Amino acid sequence: MHTLTLLHNTKRKKNRHTLLYHAHTDRMNETPPQMTPEFAQQLAAAQSSIYAFIITLMGGSDEAADVLQETNLKLCRAFYHYDVKKPFINWALTLARFEVMAWRSRQSRSRLILDNDVAEKVADAMEKMSIESERQLAALERCLQKLPQHQRNLIEERYQQGKTVREMAGLKGEPENALAAMLYRIRRILQECITTTLAKEESA
Amino acid sequence: MSKDFERAIQSALDGELTEYNSSLLNQTLGSDSNALETYCGQMHMHALLSWRSGILDSKSRGKDERKGSSFATKSHIWSWSGWAAAALLILGFVFFSVMPSPATAAAALDIMRKAAQAGDRTYSISVVKGDSKIAMKNGHAFTYEGAKLHLRGERQFVLVLPISEGGERITGSDGIVNWDIVGHGPVKQTNDLARFRSALPGEQQDAIFLDLTSSLNQLSSDYDLSLVNIADDQAQARLVARKKSTNIPGPRVMEFTYRRNSGVIVELILQGLPRAKGGPEALRLTLTSEAPLPEKFFTHHAHHEPSRSIRDESPSPQN
Question: I need a surface site. Which of A119, B48, B135, B252 has the fewest CB within 10 A?
């Protein structure tokens, strides 16, 4: 907690976050009342969105899953502070942001992908983005079907088989840069497709 | 956006960020709002693809096991898995209700999350009590005895029911189209995902297993839930749900036996099934396989010859 305070003590906005965090954690030490099934349901439904938020702030670090688990613990502890009149996801992402900052404070600087000020900017940008991962994941399924086979194969190798671009390039005998560019392009195509699909659904 | 910036993002995603790429990434993100937007978009899409591929589950299984699995056969991690998902939502509720400590609640959520990432599963169905057959409109009858239920994701299932007079009734959904094939008859399909589900055990009870949004609320309000330890098996536990009133639709008792570490339901017993259409009073579903199924397995095309006629009964044209 102390390191978290140090991390934030240079900017007023960050100080406000820190104070809020302390307030949360102080109250977390009280005996929590029983959790409601509605809360559990909302938390379960928000998992992919929280994960997306966390991994973006962490620059793609594979420790994002661990931070998600820590965030879940904090959300469970703090559930009775949640105002049901407000969007659950906003509240969850606020606590997720604190958890990422806490994780950052535990890392040596060399292990951090994003600098502090950049991480703040990314967090602000992500909070403005539409993160409705459940709907987006459903749209993703349709969008993947629309990809040419060779592009789907690349997605399979990268995400289902867990290969890095370097490994893929080695196996295919292709330049790494070309494969990286192709994956970049496919993600952009999928992003646009999801946006279009969801917009069509909403207007239908 | 420069190629170097694209490469830097990919390097970060691969965990192979060089000092040069790290510096480039931070400088660009700190000074260019368009780059920031691009980065967030790329990362968000990476997160969705990773989540979909079961990254959290595979993390616990180990990377070696992930390699060699195919795109066609991995489960869709984002989506809940029918029976198991409903059961795990129930489990979450039970943990929250009975053992409300934060750590336990978080552990329960972790189990729920793992269940959401579980792979394909196949259950065999056997009739514990009552008539195994249910008559169809064509005068034949299908039976639950020896039936198989395959599950993937929130909406995908294939239920194979033997027909007493020979052949099979196969009904299913790939999450986009629901379909039904009786014997050598035509394939009936629709984009109405509420259709062709009546043969699913439990489906007559307000879609308790497939409509997860309502299932948790229904179970928490209509059933008394209890956790039972299995004396000779520490690896598994059992959740028993007993209906509070006979005025409530649904099975009288449901027993979920699940693996503690993964939340996977290994056995489900439904007792006191409604019998307005005849059929069994009690069923047992036993997990028989977790082997990945082919990618197209949940489409009707995987279950008939290409020349079979297809009757589209969608209420409106599909997009």
Answer: B135
